[in-house]
Amino acid sequence: MNIQINSRYDEVYARSMADPEGFWAEAAREIDWIKPAEKIFDRDMGLYGRWFAGAIVNTCYNALDRHVARGRADQLALIHDSPLAGTVIRLTYSEMLREVQALAAVMQEFGLAKGDRVIIYMPMVPEAMVAMLACARIGVVHSVVFGGFAARELATRIEDAKPKLIFSASCGLEPGRVVQYKPLLDDAINLSSVKPESCIILQRPQQECELTSGRDSDWAELRAKAMAAGKSADCVPVLATDPLYILYTSGTTGQPKGVVRDNGGHLVALKWSMFNLYGVKPGEVWWCGSDIGWVVGHSYIIYGPLFHGATSIMYEGKPIGTPDAGAFWRVVSEHKVVALFTAPTAFRAIRKEDPDGKFIRQYDLSKFRTLFLAGERADPPTVDWAERQLQVPVIDHWWQTETGWCIAGNPVGLGQLPVKHGSPTVPMPGYQVDVVDEAARPVAAGTMGSIVIKLPLPPGCLPTLWQQDERCKQAYFTEFPGYYKTSDAGYKDEDGYIFVMGRTDDIINVAGHRLSTGGMEEILASHPDVAECAVLGIKDAIKGEVPCGLLVLKAGVSRTHIEIEKEIVSLVREKLGPVAAFKLAITVGRLPKTRSGKILRGTIKKIADGEQWTMPATIEDPKVLEEIGTALKGRV
Ligand code: COA
Ligand code: AMP
User: Fold this and answer.
1) Ligand showing the shortest atom-to-Cα distance for residue 180
2) Is 286 a member of any domain?
3) What is the pLDDT of residues 117-141, one digit of tens each?
């Protein structure tokens, strides 16, 4: 392994702390501005100040036009590799630009203009990337909704974002099944009190759908007409502080939070990260194996690589089963990928199928330099296995939908720091990360506490929640004054390495997907036979965690427990979506509570995970925990 001990990290990080404005002004030179910032950081704007105030810019111009103008017209911008569809589609920067110009022109004909919202509810197809960039081109704010969410989740997002237009597709592809998107879209629009004026639907050959007359248009027809007529939309100048997108993420209730991303800070931070953090050079092939519905997909399938002039891979498949555990290595070798970014869960799945790395050795991985992991804690055994099998650095890094890019990582471009298993390493420039107690006082090295980030947050992080400044303040800036609350808990060691151990709220992480157990409890409680319930995340060898629901049924319910438990499992799938991976509902006589009525979720989790637990001093009736132990036996 090639670990440089002469990393520039210390010097670069210190400069970002001592002179943040100077640091980010220098990074901003990598971006093409229409008008430079009046103030690099305006502390009087927004909830904690705003970056690049007064600057005018266009995100799409920086992703496409400037590369076409400066010699990358014939370089691939996107390689779409779909083992599920059996296709590989390649688009150069100039071809991508042409697609985006045409779709943006179509959107303008539909009456879309700067500041309007569009929802993109699409599978992993090249058109999704075209749609996101077309929005950015004309200053329209996109909100991508993950395809594994059910109609009700989509409806909540339609209600909140109030889109004029929705882009969708006839279907998505999952191993062994075609997921019809159109019925979900129709249900969501029915459920929502806000109705989009139009929908543009991509018909996929695997399963076409019937278009709703008066509302839906066929994507391919609109595209063909626009191309034939030579339609093309120019880039619309926007403020650096204008919103580029809204991405909804799980909050502590069923009501998701609309994280806002602006144009200027996002451009600067992501461009900076591509070389300095990921060590990727313009022209190289980069692969982020996430989904466009998640923040990781936004930042590193779509925007980051294109701001940088790299080639991005979009993969419609799984790490295993499409067709085998060599799928990732086939893609890396076929497309000459230099760095891959995925979630540890994918590696746990590969390791289970291919423990000796036989598939790995079937492919030429000579171009492959680094593996990056994020989305959940990279557990040391998985990291250790990946290092031994791949013989390249395996870099864990920690971030959140809210930050949009890495909070703590190991900057390969600046010179890799020694890896400590279980730690995402050190804070990135602009992030002062502290571990504090309940009174917001920093704790000693090695002591667990709440992880917080000193305000202001660096460029790229959320300025607010969509039209909910107050909720944003309450959720992030109130509990620890002067700080952003990450809702993650952990510690720093003597070397300043950060260890992120888990959430302090009700969020669980299922296969790298962030889900709210509170949201699931709302669904369970809506079942007519359920009197009380608790959902908690329990250990899973592949997905890290999976949800488990405990139910107390109403008195007098005559149907069998098994019947009701099955209905509960279907209800979560129907209301939240298959992505919740909710397969375990267990009926119990009562739930363990404190004397003040709080359900002892932490203790139930320990019992379910087979960990040591102690009787909580505040428990109302100690016998309940015995009953829970009996109910869980053989089920978890
Ligand atoms: N549209 C519709 N359904 C979807 C979907 C989508 N876009 N994405 C996932 N689903 C469905 C799956 O088909 C599955 O349904 P099932 O219950 O009928 O099997 C369910 O949602 C759970 O999906 P997933 O979490 O992907 O589990 P899996 O068992 O299919 O695969 C892994 C497990 C580990 C291989 C897979 O989770 C994986 O590759 N994860 C990578 C992690 C990742 O991308 N994280 C993003 C943040 S970096
Ligand atoms: P999301 O907003 O969906 O990206 O999820 C963010 C959450 O995932 C964080 O708050 C963490 O709880 C968890 N997470 C992401 N990356 C890591 C990591 N490298 N180590 C530990 N936890 C992580």
Assistant:
1) 1
2) no
3) 999 999 999 999 999 999 999 999 9
